[in-house]
Design brief:
Layout: E1 4-11, H1 17-30, E2 36-43, H2 49-57, E3 61-64, H3 75-83, H4 92-99, H5 101-110, E4 124-128, E5 138-140, H6 146-154, E6 160-164, E7 168-177, E8 182-183, E9 187-191, H7 199-203, E10 208-211, H8 218-234, E11 239-248, E12 252-259, H9 269-276, H10 281-293
Parallel strand pairs: 1-2, 1-3
Antiparallel strand pairs: 4-5, 4-6, 7-8, 7-9, 7-11, 9-10, 11-12
Length: 294
């Protein structure tokens, strides 16, 4: 059986570049070398010479290990579609919807899915419209911190969100598949490096406690998993994604966002959820690649 020529795209120009490099390295370390000829291709912070390198490498498939703008927002996906190169994860539309939080919220409202309300004062969350990994996001508990949080968010995006602060358990549910997606075990998140699950909590060793399966009832577990699949399906995701929630008053799931290329580092949530479902990291990568080939 001929080995697939797989190129792992990593790096990029976004504020999440370092996380992308970690994700890409983990993919390279864990991918099944018996099934794939795998090579890395790092996208630099500046310049487009890498595109010619990619064409010269003539991949059967590109494994996208990019996060944030210019990687997770549909731009790379559109280029690969134009070149006729298959790739892992969601297509242009789903990627763009996942990155544009304002547009994502409008679609959730149309589908009668519970999301945080927009507010104009503390307590609230203020965040850029099109960043991931909580870059530029702030939890504002007092109005005297409001303007500085807006200035921080606007460093990363012209459009910002000001959302109500919801008190409750933070959950995330990974989903894999194409036509008939499957929800993986839910993870409960307890940040330790900040007031919320911020960049430090996500990517610092022991930055948070991540409990899988989440300590919620079976009934609530099914409700959250079904809702994650619904969001995944509505936004036309494919391959894999992760839907984040706040369990308002520890009872009512509120959808925060969908991540179409969730982190794949040693500390990332998707591999942890897969492991809880008895799916090894290598098997998870196999599944993601197979979904792309489909």
């Amino acid at each position: 059986m001929k080995k697939l020529n797989v190129i792992v795209l990593m790096g990029g120009k976004s504020s999440e570049r370092e996380i992308s490099l970690l994700s890409g390295s983990e993919v390279l370390s864990n991918i099944n070398k018996g099934r794939y000829i795998v090579k890395p291709l790092e996208i630099p912070k500046k310049g487009n010479e890498w595109i010619n390198k990619l064409i010269d490498l003539n991949p059967d498939l590109v494994f996208i290990a990019l996060h944030g703008t210019n990687g997770e927002d549909g731009s790379i996906q559109g280029m690969l579609d134009t070149l006729g190169i298959p790739y892992t994860g969601s297509g242009v539309l789903s990627s763009a919807l996942g990155m544009d939080k304002i547009l994502f919220k409008k679609i959730m409202r149309l589908e009668n899915i519970s999301i945080p309300k927009d507010v104009k004062s503390a307590p609230c969350f203020i965040k850029p419209n099109n960043e991931g990994s909580s870059v530029g996001a702030s939890l504002v508990l007092a109005d005297n911190k409001f303007n500085s949080a807006i200035r921080l968010a606007k460093k990363y995006s012209n459009d910002i969100l000001i959302e109500e602060y919801l008190n409750g358990i933070e959950l995330t549910c990974a989903v894999i598949g194409n036509e008939n997606p499957t929800a993986l075990p839910i993870i409960e998140i307890l940040p330790k490096k900040g007031d919320f699950f911020n960049y430090k909590s996500k990517y610092t060793q022991n930055g948070s406690d991540e409990i899988v399966p989440a300590r919620i009832s079976k009934l609530l577990t099914k409700e959250v998993q079904d809702l994650a699949i619904k969001v995944y399906t509505i936004t036309r995701c494919r391959g894999f994604a992760r839907v984040d929630f706040i369990l308002k008053e520890n009872k009512y799931p509120v959808v925060l966002e969908v991540n179409t290329i969730p982190g794949l580092t040693k500390m990332s949530l998707l591999p942890k959820a897969a492991k809880a479902a008895n799916i090894s990291y290598t098997d998870l990568l196999d599944k993601i690649i197979n979904y792309a080939i489909e």
